[in-house]
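Q: Got a minute? One more chain.
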Amino acid sequence: MNQPSLITASGTLFDGRSPLGQAARLELEGGAARLVIGESVRELPCAELRISPRVFSTPRFVTLPNGSELVCPDQPALDALPGASRSEGPVAWLEQRLAVAVVAVLLTLAGVASFYFVGLPRIATAVVERISPERERALGERTLAAFDGKLMSRTGLDRPTLDAVRSGFALLTHDLPAEKVPRLEFRDAPGVGPNAFALPGDIIVITDQLVKRCTVDESVVILGHELGHVAHRHSIKHMLQELGIVAVAGAVTGDASSISLSATALPPIVANAQYSQAFETEADAAGYALARKAGYSPELFASCLEKLTKEFHTERGILGYVSTHPPDAERMARAHAAALEFERERARYAPSAVTPATP
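A: Always. Here it is, folded:
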């Protein structure tokens, strides 16, 4: 008949009464457990011993029935204790392998990125459909009020310039029902710089600084781009996505305060909106269509952006139009292509020269 094998685990015992530990040895044999301290031997109920989980190669704690703890180096012998978890072996194996940890981190990052680029936009679109126009309008009004109190003041543009821009805006929105026409607001905003942006609730703001940098016609075409953002409700979608990012960050880091602070961040989110490429493409296409229909060449959009790009390198407004609507080469190329199409359409429908009648 096989005799039960003796398993020993040596370590330092802390009894809770003294900060100093003492050398001790835990012996396991069959179903029995003994704690050996010098010449003293104490029998222990093996079923009541509890072992801490394995974490890399750190020491482990064996809790005794009286509350004392035996701290000992991690060793296979400890896995024989009844309190040892069967999952500790695989978990420890994973923890001790850097390559596995790196792969796990990369998979986590890929999952977060997928949620950001695919999940959040879909969720934001679904949520926007359930937001009433009244609530969205109230949000836009609050955001505009926040700007007026800190960054913007009444426009200083002269009446003829204001009337000219408004007339162009009226041409862009000519086919819209009166209740669907966005509200156009002019603001003097030296700290904001040359900018135009759409707020929730069908509000479009254009700064004096943009109108002064560009011609009236260029400013009107820029407003066509912002009308594209309004039509697709990009502002509220973007805000929801940004708040989603804050919520995800709070969930990942365990910092719930970041979520509560998100509500106070709404105005900066709107004003400094780095819209996605998909949003910009949609707004560009809508803006070019509106401009062509109203008789404006999309080339005006490209020329305005070129002016603002030069200004941005010499004058840094915290919310400059170029910083929030980056004029990358692809967008400029689309503007030039839309302008060529506009010229072809005009040539196609222009009255042809009258051919003299032959006798």
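A: The longest strand covers residues 6-14.
Q: Perfect, thanks.
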